[in-house]
Write a structure and sequence with these properties.
The chain is α/β, with parallel strands linked by helices. The protein is built from eleven helices and six strands. Helix 1 links the parallel strand 1 and strand 2. The model has no long low-confidence stretch (mean pLDDT 96).
């Protein structure tokens, strides 16, 4: 089960899923308010996203699932692991946002908020999340996904992932977890390392020469890590 990050949609996983091949049953979701689910009413919170994911996993009969989360999607996976541990077999978290409050400065907080519903600002921000900002096709792809999220969805979900803290609850998660930290994603690497230390059954991995959107830029690398993790938790 693949869960996207903030101002993204399920399309960011398409190359990873393609690299995994048809022998792996892969399900990518649009969280409520994003992608093709952008007309679904809120709330647009980590708790709501996790509850929706639990319902989908149970409805599809894929309990327990391996949940792969990127950025905000990592925090959604962690919330699911706290609220419905039976629903997860394991987690692969790529560049996850902190399970505690993000701790942005007022200026940093305002800068991210300003990207919501603003095509120029969001493009500038997304250019800093990839290792090769000159790659126009990747940047436009990410911008197209971000453009589907209404401003109010982006703002409410940002408030949720950036300012909620359930680190104490997450410390009780026993599901196996792989925490992947892209080397150049310096703002999240330390929090990813702390998360790996917090979870009782987690492994931390730093990926050299990669940035926040490694899932789009290096999908085969991520697919290989997922495949190995799946084998290890069977």
């Amino acid at each position: 089960m693949f869960v996207h990050g903030w101002q993204a949609d399920r399309s960011v996983w398409s190359d990873v899923i393609g690299a995994l091949g048809p022998e792996v049953r892969s399900i990518a979701v649009d969280l409520t308010g994003f992608g093709d689910s952008n007309a679904v009413p809120g709330p647009y919170t980590i708790e709501r996203f996790a509850a929706d994911l639990r319902q989908l996993i149970e409805t599809l009969g894929v309990v327990p699932a391996i949940v792969v989360g990127h950025s905000m999607g990592g925090k959604v996976a962690l919330r699911l692991a706290v609220d419905a541990p039976h629903a997860l077999r394991g987690m692969v978290l790529v560049a996850p946002v902190p399970v505690s409050a993000a701790g942005f400065s007022p200026k940093g907080d305002a800068r991210l908020r300003a990207t919501a519903g603003h095509p120029v600002a969001v493009k500038d921000w997304l250019a800093r999340t990839i290792d090769d900002p000159s790659n126009a096709s990747i940047l436009e792809r990410l911008c197209a996904a971000a453009a589907k999220a209404p401003r109010e969805v982006a703002l409410e979900s940002f408030e949720s992932w950036a300012h909620t803290d359930f680190a104490e609850e997450a410390g009780a998660i026993t599901a196996p977890a792989l925490i992947v930290a892209p080397e150049h994603d310096t703002t999240l690497t330390e929090s990813a390392r702390k998360l790996a230390a917090l979870l009782p059954n987690a492994t931390f991995l730093s990926l050299a020469g990669t940035a926040h959107y490694v899932i789009v830029e290096r999908p085969h690398v991520i697919a290989e890590l997922i495949s190995k993790f799946v084998e290890d938790v069977r």
